[in-house]
Amino acid sequence: MPFVQVHIWEGRTVDQKRKLAKAITDAMVEHVDADPTGLHVAIAEYPRESWARNGVLGVDRKDV
Amino acid sequence: MPFVQVHIWEGRTVDQKRKLAKAITDAMVEHVDADPTGLHVAIAEYPRESWARNGVLGVDRKDV
Amino acid sequence: MPFVQVHIWEGRTVDQKRKLAKAITDAMVEHVDADPTGLHVAIAEYPRESWARNGVLGVDRKDV
Amino acid sequence: MPFVQVHIWEGRTVDQKRKLAKAITDAMVEHVDADPTGLHVAIAEYPRESWARNGVLGVDRKDV
Amino acid sequence: MPFVQVHIWEGRTVDQKRKLAKAITDAMVEHVDADPTGLHVAIAEYPRESWARNGVLGVDRKDV
Amino acid sequence: MPFVQVHIWEGRTVDQKRKLAKAITDAMVEHVDADPTGLHVAIAEYPRESWARNGVLGVDRKDV
């Protein structure tokens, strides 16, 4: 039944998304008894100019 | 006053969105007495490679 | 398939929520061809001290 | 860096949440190279009267 | 017009929320020309057992 | 620790986003004692055809 939203920077491959969605689904079934038939995992990707950590946009960071 | 977010696969026409936003707004006014002047409906669209049901990405499904 | 989140002040009855969820589901099926078997509507309720419009918390407003 | 929101019915134990948060974090690190120091997992729980699938509130369903 | 959601641990006073909502609204008007009449700020509070950073629930952390 | 999501129409410059993210971060630290090292601000932008106020899509409004 549940809905899981992943908020992340853009730039993952389809295969990375495939494995992530599968692993999160498995975790939901194993740990919180989720019914997988209605379980959705949605990945919302943000450009680096639209996400800040510690007040600094991704495009302005030197460490990533 | 409220805010309604619709999370959906991409690919709807403007006219589909127009009718959906109107119908959701009407439902909010009729059933929960929402003030429409501050009522927002936002449609977040996801590519099929970014949404999984039952652990399977949309791009990998055979049934849709 | 989709997921609809309604963000609203707390205080609706179960029957209001029942009718709202049904009406939004019907709108999704009619206007954007959603598959209702995996369609979720989730209502997130906020106390009036946790929601502001125009910079003013609900608990501080005189007009509602 | 990312943020993961889990939308689910209320009623899980602290230990179930502990295991779920750990498993999702591990999946994010393994599959999408997330930096775990800034990775948050937030579990939003909804009462059964505030979540509908297929247009029917959880409180009205016979099958769950 | 916009909608701002703040996801945070529970435990803030009404006055803290009042000042936060005002400051975020002012920032939206000053920096992105938001129309404040339709601008909402909603604060979603989570118990410490429902939020993990770095894979560890708030209730299990020693440093906060 | 917290996560702030800004839902807004598309069309802001990087510099507008930079100032907004900084101002929201500062407000979170000042008013609710947020730890900025784990504080994220994410800006989700919507095209005008995907956001309605008062039941009317942005593309159909004459006043904006």
TrEMBL record, chains A, B, C, D, E, F:
Residues 2-57 form the 4-oxalocrotonate tautomerase-like domain. Keywords: Isomerase. GO terms for molecular function: isomerase activity. Signal peptide: none annotated. Belongs to the 4-oxalocrotonate tautomerase family. This is Tautomerase family protein. It comes from Leucobacter ruminantium. The lineage of its organism: Bacteria, Bacillati, Actinomycetota, Actinomycetes, Micrococcales.
